[in-house]
């Protein structure tokens, strides 16, 4: 079983999902979010230094925090007022702003700032007061290092581009289903490389649904939630023939093409049936180097994609997309 | 009942979907595609002039068609070979290319071109032959006029930006459900203006599902397919409180925010409960004129959006998006 992040480099070319007579199921899941893996809290940073001094730079409208370790951070008044964590300004249960924009004075000054109980306490000109935890502030310091660290914490940014020398990472299907660590390792490899080969799934339909339910939910398309890639009479898609397919990217006519697709080879063809995959990001990078003009055309010119027919429902979809996004 | 194309100008601001105590249902539908409306064939253009002469310009690798009306069209050899409509190169039932890229010679010449039975018949150097219908060719002429006409045929390109002087277009809910012309008029207004007010829906839950099934299918989100916007304890979203909301755009943390949302006011609040809507495109255009630097920042700088909690499923979503897209 293959799972991969479809890399939207080419919408019309590049990725081959099937050869001849292969009969995988395809399923799409729009994002990674589930019962046990995705909702984990952010890692605890802890160990932030204490605040030595906090003072308002009224001219610059910045709050300056001098930390015990000798470093210094600057926070705009407006940003602090906008990010007030009090129950009036932030709905704690949703972790969302409830302060109305109309009540935010973007030109606000600061009446007073003091350290109280190891918190930075601010009184605003309208006598509203805000309290900030030093850890919270330190983590949101505007230095490029702190911002980089926060991005690393929020996103899995590591990427590997690959060519034919790739050893496709593998994982055990049942382990991924039942062991959180195996599932996380699978997802991280999928994110980093874009393709993972899962072995050991039962050779029967329904396995991709089990896998997708493990990490999220399926996205409905006009071909349904999942479908059988097999030779069909009056095929409404070239994938439903036994003919060879060129490298391609799936669903270019969709406004939002799939992010992850699962293919399960339930019945291997006696002859043929090879699947070919290509790293579109790698090819795009290569093209950018070798033929910048071609890259520029393919990434700036929107072309028409169309898909029409009847499947899960009647459909007639028309879109304009870049070949390389 | 309001339905509108959410205009993704501001992901954090601009559009208000509810005021206080309003209890609409929200439903999202990702695209327009249904049993009766969307799969209509393209309008018949007809009446194309006949071909007076077809000749290969070997130097330029262009086919020149002189039409009976005195006009002239040029088609690149490679484009013609790529678009061969024969059963080997095009899967008719899918209206899709089955010609493999590896079998396409992008530097192809042309052995012969002739008019046969009012078709343009081409023989390629490998003796493969292609036949093109004059209507088909005329419609795909590369002149800017023909390309413009084709775009007008493929897309509903008309847009109206609006301010507070807008008279929100209205339609009758039951008519839209049962009359194709009314449904088409509703969708065209929705596309053009971005908001339509449907009257006459029964004041009970389930109406948005009926409406969405009329034109497509709902998109699943981690808040479910649809949800009740009402005051909830420990609200996981500011929309689930009775507090006033600032103008905003929904679901900025999603990779693919909704295109169309339906809100149904099932129970009007005794006091308050107003909904406010703003045309984000209009505001963005205004900002572009009045403060190009601000527009540039908001449309080029990606900011972090986050949404976490538990609803249809546990979720913890993080995204980077432009405020103005």
Automatic annotation (TrEMBL), chains A, B:
Residues 170-309 form the TauD/TfdA-like domain. Pfam families: GBBH-like_N, TauD. Pathway: Amine and polyamine biosynthesis; carnitine biosynthesis. GO terms for molecular function: gamma-butyrobetaine dioxygenase activity; metal ion binding. Keywords: Carnitine biosynthesis, Dioxygenase, Iron, Metal-binding, Oxidoreductase. SUPFAM superfamilies: Clavaminate synthase-like. One of its GO terms (biological process) is carnitine biosynthetic process. Belongs to the gamma-BBH/TMLD family. This is Butyrobetaine (gamma), 2-oxoglutarate dioxygenase (gamma-butyrobetaine hydroxylase) 1. It comes from Sinocyclocheilus anshuiensis. The gene is bbox1.
């Amino acid at each position: 079983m293959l799972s991969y992040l479809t890399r939207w480099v080419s919408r019309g070319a590049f990725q081959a999902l099937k050869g001849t007579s292969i009969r995988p199921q395809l399923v799409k899941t729009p994002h990674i979010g589930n019962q046990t893996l995705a909702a984990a809290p952010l890692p605890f940073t802890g160990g932030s230094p204490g605040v030595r001094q906090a003072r308002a730079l009224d001219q610059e409208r910045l709050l300056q925090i001098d930390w015990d370790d000798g470093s210094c951070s600057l926070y705009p008044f407006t940003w602090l007022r906008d990010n007030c964590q009090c129950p009036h300004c932030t709905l704690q249960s949703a972790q969302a702003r409830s302060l109305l924009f109309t009540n935010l004075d973007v030109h606000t000054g600061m009446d007073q700032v003091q350290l109280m109980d190891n918190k930075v306490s601010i009184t605003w000109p309208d006598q509203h007061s805000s309290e900030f935890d030093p850890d919270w502030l330190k983590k949101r310091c505007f230095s490029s290092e702190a911002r980089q660290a926060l991005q690393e914490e929020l996103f899995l940014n590591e990427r590997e581009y690959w060519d034919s020398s790739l050893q496709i990472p593998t994982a055990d299907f049942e382990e991924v289903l039942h062991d959180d660590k195996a599932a996380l390792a699978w997802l991280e490899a999928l994110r980093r490389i874009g393709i993972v080969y899962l072995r050991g799934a039962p050779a029967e339909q329904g396995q991709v649904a089990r896998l997708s339910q493990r990490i999220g939910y399926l996205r409905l398309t006009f071909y349904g939630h999942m479908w059988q890639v097999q030779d069909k009479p009056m095929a409404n898609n070239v994938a439903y023939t036994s003919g060879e397919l060129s490298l391609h990217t799936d669903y270019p006519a969709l406004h939002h093409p799939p992010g992850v697709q699962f293919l399960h080879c339930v019945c291997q063809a006696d002859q043929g049936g090879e699947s070919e995959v290509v790293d579109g990001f790698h090819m795009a990078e290569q093209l950018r180097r070798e033929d910048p003009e071609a890259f520029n055309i393919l990434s700036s010119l929107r072309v028409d994609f169309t898909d029409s027919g009847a499947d899960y429902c009647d459909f007639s979809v028309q879109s304009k997309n870049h070949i390389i996004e």
